[in-house]
Write a structure and sequence with these properties.
Blueprint (H helix, E strand, L loop, with lengths): L3 E4 L11 E2 L2 E4 L10 E9 L2 E6 L5 E5 L3 E5 L5 E4 L14 E6 L3 H4 L1 E9 L5 E11 L2 E10 L14 E3 L5 E4 L19 E5 L21 E4 L4 E6 L6 E5 L6 E5 L37 E3 L6 E6 L12 E5 L4 E8 L2 E8 L7 E6 L5 E5 L4 E7 L1
Parallel strand pairs: 2-20
Antiparallel strand pairs: 1-3, 4-27, 5-6, 6-7, 7-8, 9-10, 10-11, 11-12, 13-14, 14-15, 15-16, 17-18, 18-19, 19-20, 21-22, 22-23, 23-24, 25-26, 26-27
């Protein structure tokens, strides 16, 4: 049976050769595959946001109110780690993503992104690192601060992704009230930045030497990027971001690329549904690999599956969905998405993060006041 594609909304020339997703791709060849089984590893987490795996089998989870917690392999919650700098836990802000240094086994560095307080009620996304020492973080350093700080409770981003060369990508939101700054290069709003593990600027960043640009910038024209993953084959950075009313995007994040927001977008103005910007395509704007219209899925978290734990799923891309309350499985052919399947629709949970563990299983975080760490089994 030929796969059936249902596209919600109208495609534009901008997505010629791409998959316009507001789509659901279903009716697969042969019998439908059973839903994965869901196991609760831990519960009692308060709005968990990011997940990392320690070499000894424990988990490290960030909670948006401002806590990092170690979770035992048996699911037992440890006390919050001491040593974190102040966090603004308001609106969409708080403690966000967490990642381990690629050489964590020897240097013990843990990295986290968070909303940092500024002067006169302002705040901004920042990245810090510290050495894990028992139940505390030592030698804590703030290695990046988003500039300018803004008086806002929205659109902080932020995911962390280490590239194969050890550089760190940090995704950043436009802070909602400053969306036009996403097209300017003299700030960090609505950008993806690339830094060394200690916060220094790599000498080969794309805007180095330009007087009108921040040297940390990797790409621009983003709205609120809450998913980032390194492609296991190409090493390219893939990201996804929230649109406003529709227009969520999956992107291959281009070096020096303009991804359009708010001038080129599939999103619409909240409530009234009118167009934003100048259309959905422009020659100098990087087109998304996929987009969702007319209803946003509110994507958060993303992982490529490289293990053989789930028959037929190796190489697929998995995206958590907050508004859609599901886990999206995207089948990839090169740089194209060829099919989408929505998993766990009856779980009725906002999926905040999805990661592949060292054991090859997929793990999820659910975003609520009694959040859970889940493991998927075939």
């Amino acid at each position: 049976m030929t796969p059936i594609r249902r596209v919600h909304g109208v495609s534009s020339p901008r997505v010629s050769g791409f998959l316009a997703i507001g789509l659901v791709l279903c009716a697969l060849s042969g019998p439908a595959r059973a839903e994965p089984k869901v196991e609760t590893v831990a519960h009692g987490l308060v709005n968990p946001w990011g997940l990392a795996f320690l070499p000894d089998g424990r988990f490290l989870v960030s909670e948006r109110p401002g806590r990092l917690r170690l979770i035992g392999a048996d699911g037992r919650l440890g006390p919050p780690l001491a040593g974190l700098p102040p966090v603004v836990a308001e609106g969409q802000g708080g403690l966000l993503d967490v990642a381990l240094d690629p050489a964590f086994a020897t240097n013990r560095w843990v990295y986290w992104s968070y909303s940092e307080p500024g002067e006169a009620g302002t705040n901004g996304t920042a990245v810090a690192r510290g050495r894990l020492d028992g139940d505390r973080l030592a030698d804590v350093q703030v290695i990046f601060r988003q500039l300018p700080k803004v008086a806002s409770r929205q659109h902080f981003g932020s995911r962390l992704a280490f590239a194969p060369d050890g550089r760190l990508f940090v995704t950043l939101g436009d802070r909602f009230s400053r969306k036009d700054d996403a097209q300017r290069l003299d700030n960090h709003l609505g950008k993806v930045v690339r830094i060394e593990a200690d916060g220094k600027v790599p000498a080969d960043n794309p805007f180095i030497g330009r007087a009108d640009a921040r040297p940390e910038l990797w790409s621009y024209g983003h709205r609120n990027v809450q998913g980032a993953a390194i492609h296991p084959g190409t090493g390219a950075l893939w990201t996804h971001e929230h649109g406003p009313q529709g227009g969520d995007e999956l992107n291959i994040d281009a070096r020096g690329g303009n991804h359009g927001w708010p001038v080129i977008t599939f999103g619409r103005n909240y409530g009234i549904g009118t167009r934003i910007g100048d259309g959905t395509e422009r020659a100098d704007v990087v087109a998304p690999v996929a987009h969702w219209v007319p209803t946003s899925i509110a994507p958060s978290g993303m992982a490529f599956l490289t293990s053989d734990r789930y028959p037929g799923w190796k190489g697929n891309l998995f995206i958590g969905a907050l508004r859609a309350e599901s886990l999206l499985r995207l089948e990839i052919d090169g740089n194209k998405v060829v099919r989408e399947t929505r998993l766990l629709p009856t779980l009725n949970e906002r999926i905040r993060d999805v990661r592949q563990g060292p054991d090859g299983w997929l793990y999820l975080l659910t975003d609520n006041a009694d959040g859970r760490l889940l493991r998927l089994r075939p």
